Amino acid sequence: MNKSILQYRLTDAERQQFEAEGYLMIEDALSAAQIADLTAAADGIYEQKLTDGHDPHKALFYPNFIPDDPLFYNLVDYEKTFPKVWGILGWNIYLYHAHLIVTPPNGEAPSDKTFGWHQDSGRVNLEMESHPRPRLSLKIAYFLSDTSEAGRGNFWIVPGSHLHDSIERPADGQGQPAGAVPVLAKPGTAVFFDRRLWHAASPNWSDITRKVLFYGYGYRWIRTKDDMTVQSLWEQSDPVKRQLLGWGMNANGFYSPTEEDVPLKTWLRENSPQDVSA
Ligand SMILES: O=C(O)CCC(=O)C(=O)O
User: Any residues with Cβ below 6 Å from ligand 1, and which?
Assistant: First the structure.
C-alpha cells in the first residue's frame, strides 16, 4: 500500500459526522473516468442478467461481484475511502460482503408506500443482547448514476438512527418513519453508513436507471454474507489487500490475530502509528 493513501485519513469532522449521524458522504470520490469504466462493467453484468431472464422492471441485487472485474477489485482498498474504514473500525477488518444494485425505472406512478426499512446483518440484531446494538460493520455505497434528486431509486436513511434498536413505521403502511430522508448523491459520491443506521431502498420513479456498488467491511471474526469467492485474487494482492480479501494464517487468527494475520496493523504501525489501537 502506498503511503500517499494517508492524505485521505478520516478527519475529526468526518468522525464526528459518522458518530453522530451514522453516515458520511464523500463527493467526487470517483473521477469521471472511473465512473464511466465502472458503469460499463456494471452494465455488462446487468445486460447478461437481463439476457438470463431478469425482470427489466425489478431491481437487480447481485452479490459477490468483486471477482467479475479488476475495476471492482481495485476499489477494495481504494485510497480515497479505505483509510476512513480503518479510521472507524480499526485494523482487524476485511471485506465481508459486496453487492451491486441496479434499479431500473419501475414504470409506475410515485406512491407513498412505506419502504423496507432495516438495519443490516439480519439475525445479528435479534441474537446479540446489548443496547445500543454494536456497530460491527459498515458499508461504502459508490453511486455511479445520478441520484441527486429524489424519486430516482434513492438510498433512504434516518440520520442519527444508528443508536436506536427500533424505529416506528407508519401503521397504515403509508409514508416513511419520522426523520427519513433520501440521500441525494451525485455520480462519484461515496456514502459510508454504519450497519445499524436504519435505511431502505426506494422505487425508481424516474427514467434514469440507478446503479450503486456496495462494499461491506467488518471485523475478521464476522462470517462472509455472500459467497465472496475472492480467494483466487490473493496471489496477485499485496499483504494488506490479501487481509481485506479474507486471508488469514489459521482459524484462531481471526479472533486472536498474530502480526502475520493482520498486515494492515503492521503497515499502520510503521506509517500511521496513531491509527493503531490495542
Ligand atoms: O439499494 C439501496 O438503496 C439500499 C441497499 C441496502 O439496503 C443495503 O445495502 O443494505
Answer: 101, 120, 139, 155, 199, 201, 214
pTM value > 0.90: yes
Burial of 208 by CB count in 10 Å (0-12 exposed, 13-18 middle, 19+ buried)?
middle
- The count of other CB atoms within 10 Å of the CB of residue 197 is 25
Which position has the grid cell 422492471? 57
Structure confidence by residue, pLDDT tens digits, 203-226: 999 999 999 999 999 999 999 999
How far from 89 is each of 16, 44, 70, 83, 274, CA to CA, in Å?
14, 33, 25, 10, 14
Pocket test for ligand 1, best of 101, 140, 181, 192 (most atoms within 8 A of CB): 101
Looking at residue 137, what is its pLDDT?
A: 98
Start-end of H helices in the chain:
12-21, 32-51, 70-74, 82-89, 124-127, 239-244, 263-271
What type of residue is 157?
I
CATH of domain 3-275: 2.60.120.620
Which residue is closest in CA terms to ligand 1's atom 7?
A: 200
The CA-based angle 22-117-25, given to 5 degrees, is 30
Sequence ranges of the domains in the chain = 3-275
Tens-digit pLDDT profile for residues 28-69: 999 999 999 999 999 999 999 999 999 999 999 999 999 999
- The cell for 66 is 468483486
Whose CA is closest to atom 10 on ligand 1? 120
CA of 200 to the centre of ligand 1 (A): 6
Q: Closest Cα to atom 9, ligand 1: which residue?
A: 214
